[in-house]
Design brief:
single chain, 307 residues, alpha/beta, 17% strand, globular
């Protein structure tokens, strides 16, 4: 696996407040104290590095380009609420469209990302922006953890996910709860791994979301982030631009009956910090040993980082 590492850098201290109170969701009680899992300490060995790449400077305070991009106009309300409403609306057709628009390649991207966590054998996993639970279900099958908690702002998406989990017989492993990814309701140092697949571009505050992921990870724990990206080179960059702005919105409207969701998707994807530009932000939010790998001409990129 060809990972692209970034050079080390000194980060300013500071982290978000940790006095979080768990929200009651009628689920089996979860112990967020690392000692309560009854697991022996695990030695984390990072994936071998390749050649270093230049890391662009990171300003200490900034607004990220995808943050103001919303499914509807600003007058329709804050981005978080718009995204929640959008996903509640497209939930019944989301899985079908997802696999159709990627020609099924997204399944392979998810497998590769989850398999990159196998050397660390995480037993407690938080899947952020879990949606209909595809990533959580695959992680349960391939990593055999004790517990996965999937969080999302869309109850409509998670309701689809709960039904899928029941059919898979994984409802004793995977639990769903509605939560705000930029202000998680878990104690610090709670999880062996945090995963997020194709959801980070929807954050209203990307830096807050990444900082929260770092906060709830145990020391030595791992973040696996996968996001859609634009191919960096000719001719795929130009071909994908046509596909994303013409074909994708057309099929999205036809199947989901939503006029905005699949117009919003390519705009938010193009504005999201890509590859080398996300690395310094991850470091700024408390992660180290950050590496990334592009998939399929750069249509998707996965990032592995350690707390």
């Amino acid at each position: 696996m060809m990972w692209q590492p970034a050079s080390k850098r000194t980060l300013p201290p500071g982290s978000p407040p940790t006095n979080r109170n768990p929200i009651a969701h009628g689920l089996p009680p979860t112990n967020h104290n690392p000692a309560s899992h009854g697991l022996p300490p695990t030695n984390r060995n990072p994936i071998a590095h390749g050649d270093s790449v230049a890391e662009p400077p990171f300003p200490t305070a900034m607004s990220h380009p995808q943050e103001p991009i919303t499914p509807h106009s600003a007058a329709s309300g804050p981005k978080r609420k718009q995204v929640e409403t959008m996903f509640n609306h497209i939930a019944p057709t989301y899985d079908r469209l997802n696999h159709m628009l990627s020609l099924g390649i997204d399944r392979r991207w998810r497998r590769k990302a989850i398999d990159a966590l196998k050397p660390f054998a995480p037993q407690t996993i938080l899947d952020i922006a879990t949606g209909t639970g595809d990533f959580a279900i695959l992680a349960a099958r391939r990593l055999d953890p004790d517990r996965i908690i999937g969080v999302d702002i869309s109850e409509g998406m998670m309701e689809v996910g709960r039904e899928k989990v029941r059919k898979e017989g994984l409802d004793n492993v995977i639990y769903f709860m509605q939560d705000d990814s930029t202000s998680l309701s878990f104690e610090s140092n709670s999880f062996d791994a945090v995963t997020i697949a194709y959801g980070a571009r929807n954050f209203e505050n990307l830096e807050a979301g990444l900082s929260e992921m770092c906060r709830v990870l145990k020391p030595g724990g791992h973040l696996m982030l996968v996001e859609l990206t634009t191919p960096p080179r000719f001719p795929m960059k130009q071909l994908f631009g046509i596909y994303a702005h013409v074909v994708m919105p057309f099929l999205g409207r036809l199947i989901s009956h939503d006029d905005s969701a699949y117009t919003y998707l390519p705009k938010s994807m193009e504005a999201f910090p890509q590859a080398e530009r996300l690395v310094p932000l991850l470091r700024h939010c408390g992660f180290n040993s950050v590496k990334f790998q592009r998939f399929t001409f750069g249509l998707s990129t996965m990032y592995l980082a350690t707390k």
